[in-house]
Automatic annotation (TrEMBL):
This is Uroporphyrinogen decarboxylase. SUPFAM superfamilies: UROD/MetE-like. Catalyzes the decarboxylation of four acetate groups of uroporphyrinogen-III to yield coproporphyrinogen-III. Homodimer. It catalyses: uroporphyrinogen III + 4 H(+) = coproporphyrinogen III + 4 CO2. Its EC number is 4.1.1.37. Keywords: Cytoplasm, Decarboxylase, Lyase, Porphyrin biosynthesis. It comes from Streptomyces polyrhachis. Transmembrane segments: none annotated. Pathway: Porphyrin-containing compound metabolism; protoporphyrin-IX biosynthesis; coproporphyrinogen-III from 5-aminolevulinate: step 4/4. It comes from the Bacteria. It is found in: Cytoplasm. Substrate binds at R37, Q38, A39, G40, R41, D86, Y161, S216, H330. Belongs to the uroporphyrinogen decarboxylase family.
């Protein structure tokens, strides 16, 4: 059960880190940097330790998870670690028949299209993911003053994988269900919100210092549909972890028109992709929230001088913000040169040192 009071959350060593200060919109010694998908992907040391172990299997091995999560912290000197896992792990943990296919992504054996299919989604108990608790405890001990970010998929993005049966460009089955059977849609997202809330609580109780809700594909929706059919469910997730006092980050891709609502859903920090400058994003989100972002991940393939010029644009647009966490506008691309990431961390730290 979740018997620990919020004050027992064992993350006090990271309290004064630049990352948590920026999330709380307090003055920082330098702009903190981390990268979505910093673990795995581009690192040779990641490919080495992952060899011969399937993705989902590796997520259930606490020592391996700990090593992979620490790799980018050691190599790049980023200001936060992100727990190595995947958004479908809690679904797998409650018995949904799914796999992560290399080069494809999550694939679901029996897509959810009818009321009867909802039976696949029972509540998540902490014991279903005891390997997560174990890995996070190990990680927090190893990380010391570096904060650990926990994460989960948001109800809409999880629903997209479950309804489509796998990655989708247009989300057509998902939208067909959303418009065609609003009642079933609402029940589906409600169940996913309960699972996601439980999964985030497990991570916070084990010592995560912040959480990010990935609604990666929600930019496929127009604002009215987001407000009525998705936002109430994401808001329940944020509300369910509000009492812990850890920063809650909310991120999606192509969400320029949704940023205000994504803040209203209950985030402390709103993640922004590269399509909208941070000063404009701040106007849309409004006061009282920090922003995270938003360098185009493809810029890491450009020569160093161009990379620095693009980082300058991000930092200049962020100059008037109350709280800024430097990040990419989406995840690190698999063929990224790790040295470019290290150089970028150094550059942002140097340029923003106060
Ligand atoms: O830093 C990190 O890499 C942490 C680990 C991490 C995270 C944060 C992984 C490992 N997955 C995720 C989150 C995740 N998974 C998201 C949200 C973030 C984002 O938008 O990038 C999403 C949408 C997924 C779903 C997913 N899992 C995809 C995308 C498929 C699609 O729809 O286009 C893929 C390819 C995966 C598999 C996966 N997850 C993680 C890794 C290292 C891999 C590759 C596994 C392999 O190659 O075997």
């Amino acid at each position: 059960g979740f018997e620990h009071p919020a004050s027992a959350v064992p993350n006090s060593a990271a309290r004064d880190s630049a990352f948590l200060k920026a999330c709380r919109r307090e003055p920082v010694p330098h702009t903190p940097v981390w990268f979505m998908r910093q673990a795995g992907r581009s690192l040779p040391e990641y490919r080495e330790v992952r060899r011969g172990t399937a993705m989902l299997e590796s997520c259930m091995m606490p020592e391996l998870v700990t090593e992979i999560t620490l790799q980018p912290v050691r190599r790049h000197g980023v200001d936060a670690a992100i727990y190595f896992s995947d958004i479908v792990v809690p679904l797998k943990a409650i018995g949904v028949d799914l796999d992560i296919k290399p080069g494809v992504g999550p694939v679901v054996a029996h897509p959810i299209r009818s009321r009867a299919d909802l039976a696949q989604l029972r509540a998540l108990e902490p014991d279903d993911v005891s390997y997560v608790t174990e890995a996070i405890r190990m990680l927090v001990a190893e990380l010391g003053a570096t904060p650990l970010i926990g994460f989960a998929g948001a109800p809409f993005t999880l629903a997209s994988y479950l309804v489509e049966g796998g990655p989708s460009r247009n989300h057509e089955h998902t939208k067909a269900l959303m418009y065609g059977d609003p009642q079933l849609w609402s029940e589906l997202l409600d169940r996913l919100a309960v699972i996601t809330s439980a999964f985030l609580k497990v991570q916070i109780e084990a010592g995560a210092s912040a959480v990010q809700l990935f609604d990666s594909w929600v930019g496929a929706l127009k604002p009215a549909d987001y407000r009525e059919r998705v936002m109430p469910h994401s808001a329940k997730v944020f509300e369910s972890v509000a009492g812990y006092g850890v920063p809650r980050i909310h991120f999606g891709v192509g969400t320029g028109e949704l940023l205000g609502l994504m803040g209203e859903a209950g985030a402390d920090v709103v993640g922004v992709d590269w399509r909208i400058p941070l000063d404009e994003a701040a106007r849309r989100v409004g006061p009282g929230r920090a922003l995270q972002g938003n360098l185009d991940p493809a810029v890491l393939f450009a020569p160093r001088e161009a990379l620095r010029a693009q980082a300058d644009q991000v930092l200049d647009a962020a100059a008037g913000l109350e709280g800024h966490v430097f990040n990419l506008g989406h995840g690190v691309l698999p063929d990224t040169d790790p040295a470019a990431l290290t150089a970028l961390v150094e550059y942002v730290h140097e340029r923003t040192a106060r």
